[in-house]
Design a protein that fits this description.
Jelly Rolls, 9-stranded antiparallel sheet, 6-stranded antiparallel sheet, 15 strands, about 5% helix, disordered N terminus
């Protein structure tokens, strides 16, 4: 399945995605997969690691999981992944991060431990730390597995690295809609395009190569799973794929016995078809 344009079942979902996911910020470009349901208790995926080039001040490139609920200005989100964000973290290293908001990024939430919210319990994994080594083009691939899941008994959203390294949690009491469950799960990439000089940024997404380059060439998410109402990890079902600027960054989803539900994504940014 190759989806380079968005296909939506209803106009409501179209409005939902545009108003919430894109945050009404047209300088943000995305390539992501998503599933929607009445009740999710989390999500998991394995992501290969890259160090994309970021062009301008205030721009970033990331690959992450979003766990979302609510709508419009009341959007609730918990997020985790890797990012290259020089103007925020002070260098061009690939870093582990998380983020949260309860009002669509307007006045609440932050990265890592930069404000009250996320509570770290691990003394071995440092949020905001450089991740090394990263993957090399047509060479060795290095990965990270992240798992966000709700603990109904403790009423928290846990963030876990790998299969057993719990990093910490967001209290469910931080949120309104996410206090109960999520209704939308996303996995994918995001960049900021400040369009300096009227041209699209050269900030790369993922490996900086398009999804068609696939294994060892493109960035990927694999083994996509969601946490169902019984707190069980299950396949996500019918995932949809979206690329908001497919000549700059695209996405190719698929499924296999080894990788489960997966997708390749990314791109170079500015190029002859993305001026």
């Amino acid at each position: 399945m190759h989806l380079y344009i968005y296909r939506f079942n209803t106009w409501c979902l179209l409005i939902f995605l545009w108003s919430i996911i894109y945050q009404n910020s047209f300088n943000r470009k995305y390539a992501f997969a998503y599933v929607q349901s009445n009740k999710f208790l989390g999500a998991k995926a394995t992501i290969n690691l890259w160090q994309p080039q970021v062009q301008g001040s205030g721009e970033f490139s990331l690959a992450q999981i979003w766990v979302l609920a609510g709508a419009d200005s009341a959007l609730n989100s918990v997020e985790a992944g890797w990012t290259v964000y020089p103007s925020h973290f002070g260098d061009s290293n690939t870093r582990l991060f998380n983020y949260w908001t309860r009002d669509r990024y307007q006045s609440t939430g932050c990265y890592n431990l930069e404000c009250p919210g996320f509570v770290q319990t691990s003394n071995s994994i440092a949020l905001g730390a450089t991740i090394s080594p990263v993957s090399t083009y047509h060479g060795a691939q290095h990965e990270i597995t992240l798992h966000i899941f709700k603990d109904p008994k403790k009423n928290v959203w846990w963030l876990q690295h790998g299969n057993d390294d719990v990093i910490g949690y967001w209290p469910a009491s931080l949120f309104k809609d996410l206090a109960d469950s999520a209704s939308l799960i996303e996995w994918g990439g995001e960049i900021i395009n400040n369009a300096q000089g009227g041209q699209h940024t050269t900030t790369q997404m993922g490996s900086g190569h398009f999804a068609e380059e696939r294994a060892r060439g493109a960035s990927y998410f694999k083994k996509l799973q969601v946490v169902d109402q019984s707190s069980t990890l299950v396949p996500p079902g019918d995932i949809k794929a979206v690329a908001t600027k497919p000549n700059c960054y695209n996405i190719v989803p698929g499924k296999s016995d080894n990788a489960g539900d997966y997708f390749y994504f990314g791109g170079p940014g500015r190029n002859p078809k993305c001026p």
